[in-house]
Amino acid sequence: MPKPLVLHDDRLFPADPGTRGIARRLYAEVRDLPIISPHGHTDPSWFSRNEPFPNPTELLLAPDHYLFRMLYSQGIALEDLGVAALAGPSQADPRAAWRLFAANQHLFRGTPSSGWLAWVFSKVFGLDVRLDADTADLYYDTIDAALRTPEFRPRALFERYNIEVIATTESPLDSLAHHEAIRDSDWSGRVVSAYRPDPVVDPEHEQFPQALARFAELTGEDTHSWSGYLAAHRRRRADFAAVGTTSSDHGHPTARTADLSPAEAERLFARVVAGGASAEDAELFRAQMLTEMARMSLDDGFVLQIHPGAFRNHNPGLFARFGRDKGADIPTATEYVRALQPLLGRFGNEPGLTIIVFTLDETSYARELAPLAGHYPALKLGPAWWFHDSPEGLMRFREQTTETAGFYNTVGFNDDTRAFLSIPARHDTARRIDCAWLARLVAEHRLDEDAAAEVAVDLAYTLPKRAYRL
Amino acid sequence: MPKPLVLHDDRLFPADPGTRGIARRLYAEVRDLPIISPHGHTDPSWFSRNEPFPNPTELLLAPDHYLFRMLYSQGIALEDLGVAALAGPSQADPRAAWRLFAANQHLFRGTPSSGWLAWVFSKVFGLDVRLDADTADLYYDTIDAALRTPEFRPRALFERYNIEVIATTESPLDSLAHHEAIRDSDWSGRVVSAYRPDPVVDPEHEQFPQALARFAELTGEDTHSWSGYLAAHRRRRADFAAVGTTSSDHGHPTARTADLSPAEAERLFARVVAGGASAEDAELFRAQMLTEMARMSLDDGFVLQIHPGAFRNHNPGLFARFGRDKGADIPTATEYVRALQPLLGRFGNEPGLTIIVFTLDETSYARELAPLAGHYPALKLGPAWWFHDSPEGLMRFREQTTETAGFYNTVGFNDDTRAFLSIPARHDTARRIDCAWLARLVAEHRLDEDAAAEVAVDLAYTLPKRAYRL
Amino acid sequence: MPKPLVLHDDRLFPADPGTRGIARRLYAEVRDLPIISPHGHTDPSWFSRNEPFPNPTELLLAPDHYLFRMLYSQGIALEDLGVAALAGPSQADPRAAWRLFAANQHLFRGTPSSGWLAWVFSKVFGLDVRLDADTADLYYDTIDAALRTPEFRPRALFERYNIEVIATTESPLDSLAHHEAIRDSDWSGRVVSAYRPDPVVDPEHEQFPQALARFAELTGEDTHSWSGYLAAHRRRRADFAAVGTTSSDHGHPTARTADLSPAEAERLFARVVAGGASAEDAELFRAQMLTEMARMSLDDGFVLQIHPGAFRNHNPGLFARFGRDKGADIPTATEYVRALQPLLGRFGNEPGLTIIVFTLDETSYARELAPLAGHYPALKLGPAWWFHDSPEGLMRFREQTTETAGFYNTVGFNDDTRAFLSIPARHDTARRIDCAWLARLVAEHRLDEDAAAEVAVDLAYTLPKRAYRL
């Protein structure tokens, strides 16, 4: 007897009936607003080619590190889940992988993945029983059949999902061909890129020398001189702007910034391109490049996003076999006050600049980030990120930032995901939690309900659109 | 159509009706208790001169860094808000500044400032519509008119506010003339000082050499010798005691303490007064001075307050134009266990000594401060402070300290403010949140209601009076 | 008129009636499950000798550092509470000590001790009035009389408490005589040991040289050579296994691990046994020993527990008079990501290994530990520990770990106590809080109630039994 899959209308709302009633009313104001997805990792080729997605395992399981990391943590081999190794694609039968996933759904109890998946299963595929060992094949067949229909192609889902604009993320070495194809197509969906220069900014990346060479080819600049290297960035930022880009994004080990003199920066760059830069030089170079990017933002208006604090590739055995992004990136304590001071001291008072800072270290919300964003005109707080864009994590973000930074120094929600099918579920989670938080403020007579309704709309729609200049 | 300003009787109480009912009953026990304000930054000249406060902008907006930092963070110039620059007073028209403040009230949604202001507007000035662009002039005129009446002079408000005692904070270089005038007047209000020697203790303060010279003049001691310097402190502490002082206060970058031998301390002091002390010597000197102050407390009974952990003047551009205390002080991660060990190892078991420690780093509540205060007889926990004396911050303090330190190793509430008009609102917020926390303990059958009522009174009145020896 | 002592059936459940109803139903599933106590500090001689416990003070007050540290923090001398000094046993009259404790019960308001004690007083001794100055003698006489009856001997309580298995903790220098006696007796109670080698692993322990010598005597190995030292560990682990041991336990200042080559490890050990190892060598040796213990676990199947992060003996004056474990151990900020990388990089993917890590630094839950446990097959999260195994602490553990690690990378509850009488109260607290958390997930439609009921049973019984291989 399969168990019913129920997606309750009141999910994620506070249990207290009075507060829940307020949350319902606030949520009614934002439930149907278009999705602004200002930062994420979907693949632009989906939207340029508009080809069918493959089978359930390749669509939903194998690319989703939230899912396979949890299964791996309980001793299930990645090979058995359809995850490609460096040596080649998984040999696992997709249906067998799906059954393994289905039989271990208990591992996801209480996790955000269970909520996102329930939404996808119920709302997108119309399933009304829970996924488990007994229903694995029913699920596989239902989803597989749906994916072969036109209604489940990427552009159709994009429209069904009411996405007003979505940003992907590309390196300066990307040709942007898919973005150009989308732009030049007759499809009206708005898909923009974000400029993520980490491969040409991080001297510790194993491909850094090749990346610099390719950067030169693509731009015609001498990327081994400091002035040519900066010019190459400016050229590529202009190329990105031409496909709608309004932001850059920077994933660094720390939040460190620097404000070196031009001569110091040039000497540092010379050491970096000579190869064998010390760890301190590599860190200092990344730090200085954030300030350089901010300087370019003063000209081209790109919003500067900083995503610091992940210890990447913590598991060397897994990295050797499977490479990056396999669930072995772990947050670390991250300091912002001293780290951001050079950048903010230089450009923090610029009215035309927007710097959006994220954190994997929740202790910085109330202690460092809200006080900084509640002072500097250029600084805004990115939403709860990665390990923290969950119901509890989203609520902690509001509980710990609102009193010092208010709502208007935050920028709404980022799904930041490659899991395209769950994007509405993620935004819906954020909208529900924001309404739950606002409802608590109203119920405790800390905010009037009419004001709360305005804030709810601003968080869901107005603020991300404004902050990212979309 | 202006929106109603409603100050609900149940504000800040939990939404659950049963818990709210308990909170109401507990709050009824403490609502009308006199205010003990054992630590703050009001100006003693208000009470000695008893002159009318100036206009609404100069009274409520320009001096309140909670308010103007939020407005500044959204691109509003401090000059336009009536904030004085180093070069001279603001040229802004006070009414125009007030209108700018009024039109941006949405920025304060969900912040403690909105609650404090609502109390002042409603309870003190009798306003019953919300402040916004349309009501800006009504507000300005109403408040301005009230301030010209006798009922709104400082002493009248002090009495109306039912303040039993208030402590201001002065440097050893202060003449204490205002305190002497109050003491010698026929007014019965109790206004005491606190001894805050940072200017003569911090070698990194830009005025340190001049401060030492002035310290010598005031005391007749040789403040450039270690023994004379200590004697000068003793003299001034005696002067402060004569105007009712019962505490010293120390705002240091870190919580570091030291317990040097007399010879080591003397050599350190010699390096410090010679000028050009290293950062480490400056830090060590501040650290040693906490222990010296504790030693003096054994004699004169002053309570020792430590307020560590702010990165001061983070925004150099703003500092150059506007100076200190302009909303650019940012909390930092603060370590207490190793930092306080020299002081506590030396004096922590003294039954006659009270050290009250504060933090801007909430991670230390459960991890470091509650365990330390739950062990050392001399150590008590100061309440949630500065960025954290908000509804959420006050609640986190109780949630994270009570289980290890209990209630009786805490000292009630400090408003710690220069915003005199909102002092009752701040104490009321603290009383309501403490009652909300106690009500939850009662509702969850973790505490009997009769015991909770005793605790509520102790937190609101008995503990601060006892801890500060008032 | 004494006040009634009421142990409410709904204690620790959320106040919202709907959520409370769910919590009640979930709790009904786990209330009567046997106790699995996989890690703690009870004395095996209690169960081998089965002698009566002494008077109330010696049983309940003098050994319980949660109680006497709170009293000490308010200026009550340990001597007066029956706590033995190094110089000899307390001279305090047990009844006088008990009266002092009784008269200060207000200090425990809101602390977990008050809940544990209320359970012991009510459920074990049948008392129905609250402990205070007036009832001190009633309590003393009632408890004292009960302790003289057979029903209150250790084995009788063990059975009445429905303990399926309990683990004590012994050093490799322990003879295990009590465990052997229990094993060889006709009593069926299951009491096992845990292998805690800190005295022979920590070069900074004051008894380290003597411990190594004794370790050699007990094992017949040359404990001053690296290979002999490791062989001695293997021998003693086998001895422990023979009395049912399934785990080792390691209490280190930090979580640091190392993965040295055999030659490096041998050279390090040589420096350590030569005496006067540097602090860095001592730290590195402890770090390497965690990896060596994990290597042995691959052979003998012991679960490896790491309990890091306490600053021991913070109060030197108290330490000099009373020695260790007197409430002066204070948690410190503890880093796990870099610290555990050598161990996890080496053995983290081993399917047969279980490493259980604990923390005194709650900031690591969501930031470091849940992400690590949600990835590495060998790593599991130990429950909230020591200062944090309280209602708020247990709830924070679930709120901050569940979303990333799920429930199945945690291992249920450890009481970790020497306070035998309160063991069921501690497990009951954990069960109630887990049910409260699950009830909230159900009430917010984040988890189905049938799944929540399965999880409740797994947390209370299945997971600790499985994780500890009991």
Automatic annotation (TrEMBL), chains A, B, C:
This is Uronate isomerase. Gene3D superfamilies: Metal-dependent hydrolases, uronate isomerase, domain 2, chain A. InterPro entries: Metal_Hydrolase, Uronate_isomerase. Its EC number is 5.3.1.12. The lineage of its organism: Bacteria, Pseudomonadati, Pseudomonadota, Gammaproteobacteria, Lysobacterales. Pathway: Carbohydrate metabolism; pentose and glucuronate interconversion. One of its GO terms (molecular function) is glucuronate isomerase activity. HAMAP family: UxaC. The gene is uxaC.
